[in-house]
Amino acid sequence: MDYELLKKLKDAGYPGSNTWFDNKGKYYSQGADFVSPTLSELIEECVRTGIGDFKIHVYPYGTVIERKGYDDMEFKSTSLEAMAYFYLLINKKNEDNNQKP
Length: 101
Fold this sequence. Notes:
39% of the residues lie in helices and 20% in strands. It is of the alpha+beta class. The protein has one domain. Helix 2 packs parallel to helix 3.
């Protein structure tokens, strides 16, 4: 996962983990600026936040994640990236829905 995606996760309020790294790819145990979640951490966070049913389809050319009953879908070359962008998509939609009068 690249620096820009990690920054987007951090800015979206992703809760973090014990693994962090900076924009030069150096890893730290705590106290740095950006979180580097694992695939299972991203899945757990999506479940915890109540995203609902979603399916993960892994193909030789990439991964598709879709939310059951919605048009929400992400396709990326890796499962980790697809899950991260899916989290950002759902988080953004939830924020937009909460801000409507």
